[in-house]
TrEMBL record:
Lineage: Bacteria, Bacillati, Actinomycetota, Actinomycetes, Propionibacteriales
Species of the source: Nocardioides cavernae
A GO BP annotation: DNA biosynthetic process
Record GO cellular component, one term: cytosol
Binding site for substrate: I170, V171, V172, G173, Y187
Name under which the protein is recorded: Thymidine kinase
């Protein structure tokens, strides 16, 4: 029986590496799959892992229809045994519904990989729907660590070095601001306590080096 699998973890937990490994394992057994991604760190239409592996992928935009794509491919004589879906947190809830339908009606395995919560600590829409629908949910065992050494469970966004907890979930990097330079956006994984205190590694270092002890926010 085909199943909808959801593999989740924080940003540095190796999801894309596992996505590529999953594809490799199934392809090595002669199965035919498709790899999807959206907003990958390497740019459009490529799944890339922090360990340096890359693989071509199909780019998922807001209008993409998984059900229509798979049915169209099969109708034209194509073969699909499984789908690997990276960066699934960015998919719409409708697209996750389409993936569940592909599993149930076409008996095609779907392996989805994504971050659970955004930098505001709220569930991504795609991840929320995956939690609701997945047959199996797996939290990745390669766990990222906060600067303090505790398990990193939360994603932090910094803009020009300062941690922010409000703003657009997806930052469009190529928008030219005429009157002000674009903020330098970066991400960091933290434990819940340090996410709550907005204490990033850089700020913790600055606090520890300050001559007077500073109150934590
Ligand atoms: Zn911490």
């Amino acid at each position: 029986m085909a199943e909808l699998h959801f593999f989740t973890g924080t940003m540095d937990s190796g999801k894309s590496t596992l996505a590529l490994q999953t594809n490799h394992n199934h392809a090595a057994r002669g199965r035919v799959g498709r790899i999807f991604t959206t907003h990958d760190r390497a740019g459009a239409a490529v799944v890339s892992s922090r360990l340096g592996l890359t693989h071509e992928a199909l780019e998922v935009d807001g209008e993409f229809d998984f059900w229509a794509y798979v049915v169209d491919t099969l109708t034209r004589g194509g073969r699909i045994d499984y789908l690997v879906c990276d960066e699934a947190q960015f998919y719409t809830s409708e697209q996750i519904d389409q993936l569940a339908k592909v599993v149930d009606e076409l008996q095609i395995d779907v392996f989805a990989f994504g971050i659970l919560t955004d930098f505001r600590t709220l569930l991504f829409p795609g991840s929320a729907r995956l939690v609701e629908l997945a047959d199996r949910m797996n939290v990745l065992q390669v766990e990222a660590l906060c600067w303090c050494g505790k398990r990193a469970t939360h994603n932090a966004r910094t803009e020009n070095g300062a941690m922010v907890v409000e703003g657009e979930v997806i930052v469009v990097g190529d928008v030219d601001q005429v009157d002000e330079p674009p903020a330098d956006v970066a991400y960091e994984v933290l434990c819940r306590q340090h996410h709550r205190r907005r204490l990033t590694a850089a700020r913790a270092k600055a606090v520890s080096l300050a001559p007077e002890p500073l109150p934590f926010g």
